[in-house]
Specification:
heterodimer; A: about 325 residues; alpha/beta; seven-stranded mixed beta sheet; five-stranded antiparallel beta sheet; 8 helices; about 30% helix; B: about 550 residues; mainly alpha; two-stranded antiparallel ribbon
Chain lengths: ~325, ~550
């Protein structure tokens, strides 16, 4: 993992901030707006965004106000006070926005605002229960239909498109994966080569005026939160695809008692996923005909690695949005 | 690709397995299946694994019982079991991975058995598979999993210790009259393994154990507690402070606390301040007094809070607030600080009013809860009405519930303010409140709300108009049928047809004649038809 010199970032930072009235806080620090419908105390991953902000304040020269500014809908005029809105898809139930909200959201984006929809990519097999999309960060390249519908109504001529692995978003501050030397050997290959190649992930973007105005990802905030002692707030297990002696043959004929879904790969091909339990992939038939099994590894090294990587991703998203 | 078995068989697990019977057999099998397994990883050749005759008999009996109805998984699981019993290391590992997908007794018995396989990769695979199934772990299987905390392979110990809190849940809690807290009953060998794991050579294992300690309900010897407080790894030591300190005797507690607050990392001092919150010992109070002046705001706030909770005064609370507001951002003491204002009695009321103005909706919600609990009954309605402008619907609902409990505190002017709120949920409440008002006032209020822009408010107003039989209510409801709004139409028709009078029938007939293209016309026709076909009540 490499970091770019922060003075480079700061030189970029001056330009985009000029158009926003900043924001925030009386302290003059930039503030992130977080939309939570309903009770903000019941939001998903409550430690996540404050921890990410604290992390950026510690590792970079970016200065963000420590607390997000909570709003309950795009109707709140305060969305125009800050250039970045963070929204966990699971924190909003109703995506059929009233007219006023639509107008405000469009105005916010048209004026240069940036909206990050975490968990905006939620694979089909995770959509049955809203908590599944919060517990599984599953790389897929299809935007949630509710989001697609909303933005088609706002920008009929635009579509979400994938963010290529080569995009500077993935390298704007952190680059590459954290060192995998602490990871159990049975998961290293999959993580480095398949799960998060070159430290990238599945992102979808909606561009306005040739810039990323809306960004969506599978849930990433699960890896940001720290407790008051600085320890990661919630353990993360790795879902790893494994093969084994004779396993492909056994899986090909294995009975399943759950559901069968398809998930879209980056190249558009489909994985066929079999889930014995709802929202929990068991094994997969890959486009090349190979069968592999999903394994769920729980261990501290894995959890810490996932947190480090998701925090990297979150930091890159915020810094990219501040500087582009 | 061959067709999936389930493509030709029902796919619902529940439909295939009689649940109660399945669970009973599962528990029996898993329990017995682990009972006789060796304490340490087996050195027996995997090619010659033979189950004890008792277990084999039970397994066969259970399998026979569970094949009734031809379970969808039987063929797959039997094939994997065959490979587990007769395969080489890689094949045993693969079969255990597959069996992990089937939470059924034969598969779980094999996974339990594999926990003592001679090969570490098979033991690890079995542990991962058992942790994956998200089923209650039988205590015998749990015991076997806990034995892996002493496994020679560190990666196995790491996985076992990372899930230790979940595994121990199957061991019962008991409480002696002299104990302050319940302890968990473990077989003696397991208890020793758990205690030893806190002093494992591997720092990750120790971190896991320390992190899970509060869930284990396990006694640790004082020397282990002290060793953890002095652990070379800061994370282990810091996470041990809060629960280890109160478990030390008074003398040790004073000694160790004094050493800990000299550590460079402020988190030690923070945890000492939290660990000593409830301690009545003079030594603890002295340390807390010192920490009140700590340069780290979080440490000072915790120590001040402990002081305030012992001796609540307005001056101390002001100091606490000053310290708190100097350091915006994450502070896990915020909720406790807000609720602590109640300790001041009436003097706490202005402080909570101040919290109610906070820009942070979480703080406002805590404050509203504390304020209404402590002072809601006597609160000035004019002040509470200002809180109905809060952007948070949760706070608005809290206030409205207070009004609902004490409706007489509201004047007609107050009610008018509620009815003209900018928030539909508040205006809807105004409509609901009409149920308790004098007839004329209720009529005026409801007629005003009938013009509301929100459908929900208009629906509630219509319901109240019908419920209170406001003069001319039938005409009002029939008139509302002109609005092509399904919610409004449904509400009006429901009330009109509930206890139809000749007048209602006349109005509906007239409406149907004059509005042949109305979307509700077919339903009105149907109602009128049914009404006409009704037999007269016997005389």
């Amino acid at each position: 993992m490499k970091r770019l010199p922060i003075y480079f970032l700061l030189s970029l930072l001056l330009v985009p901030l000029a158009h926003s009235q900043n924001a925030g806080a009386e302290s003059g620090e930039l503030r992130i707006t977080q939309l939570v419908e309903g009770n903000p105390l019941h939001r998903n991953y409550p430690n996540a965004l404050p921890s990410l902000i604290q992390h950026l304040n510690e590792v970079s020269t970016v200065r963000l106000y420590p607390d997000p500014l909570f709003i309950e809908s795009f109707e709140d005029e305060r969305i125009f006070e800050n250039p970045i809105i963070y929204l966990n898809f699971g924190d909003r139930e109703n995506w059929d926005l009233p007219v006023r909200e639509r107008e405000n959201l469009k105005a916010f984006l048209d004026r240069g605002g940036f909206l990050y929809i975490d968990a905006g990519i939620t694979s089909e097999f995770l959509r049955g229960n809203s908590s599944h999309g919060q517990r599984h960060s599953f790389a897929d390249w299809q935007i949630h239909p509710a989001i697609e519908e909303l933005f088609q109504s706002l920008y009929p001529e635009k579509r979400f498109e994938r963010v290529p692995r080569s995009h500077p978003l993935f390298r704007v501050f952190y680059s590459g994966l954290p060192s995998p030397e602490e990871l159990p050997e049975e998961v290293v290959d999959y993580v480095v080569n398949e799960k998060w190649p070159q430290g990238t992930y599945s992102y979808l973007q909606l561009k306005i005026d040739d810039r990323i105005a809306v960004l969506a990802s599978p849930i990433v905030a699960m890896g940001w939160g720290r407790d008051h002692l600085g320890a990661w707030a919630n353990p993360i297990a790795f879902r790893v695809l494994e093969g084994g002696a004779g396993l492909s043959d056994q899986l090909e004929t294995a009975a399943y008692g759950g559901e069968r879904y398809e998930a879209t790969r980056e190249d558009g091909r489909a994985d066929v996923i079999y889930a014995q339990q709802p929202g929990r992939p068991s094994w997969v038939q890959e486009p090349d005909g190979q069968w592999r099994i999903f394994r769920y590894y729980h261990s501290r090294e894995i959890s810490e690695y996932a947190h480090q990587f998701y925090t990297q991703l979150g930091a890159n998203v915020l810094i990219y949005s501040l500087t582009h | 690709m061959r067709e999936k078995t389930s493509a030709i068989r029902p796919t619902s697990f529940d439909l295939r397995l009689p649940a109660a019977k399945g669970i009973a057999v599962a528990v029996l099998l898993v329990a017995v299946g682990t009972l006789l397994l060796p304490a340490q990883p087996s050195t027996e050749s995997p090619d010659s694994v033979v189950l004890p005759p008792e277990i084999q008999a039970l397994l066969e009996q259970a399998q026979q019982e569970m094949t009734v109805g031809d379970p969808y998984w039987q063929e797959t699981v039997e094939r994997a079991l065959e490979q587990f019993r007769n395969g080489n290391t890689d094949q045993r590992r693969s079969s255990i991975m597959l069996l992990g997908k089937y939470p059924v007794p034969p598969a779980r018995a094999a996974m339990t058995e594999a926990l003592s396989d001679k090969d570490a990769s098979v033991r690890r695979a079995a542990l991962v598979s058992l942790l994956e199934t998200q089923m209650p772990i039988a205590s015998q299987t749990g015991g076997q999993m806990l034995r892996l905390l002493a496994d020679p392979e560190v990666s196995v110990r790491r996985i076992a210790s990372s899930s230790v809190a979940m595994i121990v849940q199957q061991f019962p809690l008991s409480m002696n009259p002299t104990d302050l807290q319940p302890t968990r009953s473990f077989p003696e060998g397991i208890r020793q393994i758990l205690q030893n794991a806190f002093r494992d050579d591997d720092v990750t294992v120790r971190r896991n154990m320390v992190g899970h300690f509060p869930y284990l309900q396990l006694e640790l010897p004082p020397e282990t507690l002290v060793a953890l407080l002095h652990d070379p790894d800061d994370e282990v030591a810091i996470h041990a402070v809060r629960w280890a300190l109160p478990r030390l005797g008074e003398k040790l507690l004073a000694q160790e606390s004094a050493k800990l607050i000299e550590r460079e990392n402020p988190l030690f001092r923070l945890e000492v301040a939290k660990g000593l919150q409830n301690s009545a010992s003079p030594a603890a109070r002295q340390i807390l007094k010192k920490l009140e002046k700590d340069p780290d705001p979080a440490v000072a706030i915790e120590a001040m809070l402990a002081h305030f909770q012992r001796q609540p005064t307005s001056e101390l609370y002001k100091d606490l607030l000053d310290r708190f507001h100097q350091n915006p951002g994450r502070n896990d003491a915020s909720q406790r600080i807000i609720f602590s204002a109640q300790l001041l009695g009436q003097a706490g009321e202005p402080f909570l009013r101040e919290w109610l103005q906070s820009e942070n909706p979480a703080y406002r919600q805590y404050a509203a809860q504390a304020y209404l609990n402590g002072y809601g009954r006597e609160a000035d309605p004019d002040f509470l009405l200002t809180l109905l402008d809060d952007a948070s619907p949760v706070i608005r609902q809290q206030i409205l519930q207070t009004f609902l409990r004490n409706p007489r505190t509201l004047t007609s002017e107050h009610r008018h303010q509620i009815a003209t709120s900018r928030y539909p949920d508040v205006r809807r409440f105004a409509a609901q409140m009409a149920a308790t008002l004098p007839a004329k006032e209720a009529e005026n209020l409801l007629m005003e709300l009938l013009l509301d822009e929100s459908t929900e408010v208009r629906v509630t107003a219509l319901q109240q108009i019908a419920n209170r039989r406001i003069p001319g209510w039938e005409e009002i409801l029939v008139l509302s049928l002109h609005e092509e709004n399904p919610q409004i139409n449904n509400t009006s028709l429901l009330w009109l047809t509930r206890q139809p009078t000749p007048e209602i029938v006349r109005l509906l007939t007239e409406f149907a004649e004059n509005n042949p293209n109305s979307s509700v016309r077919p339903r009105i026709d149907q109602f009128l038809q049914q009404f006409q076909n009704r037999k007269p009540a016997p005389k």
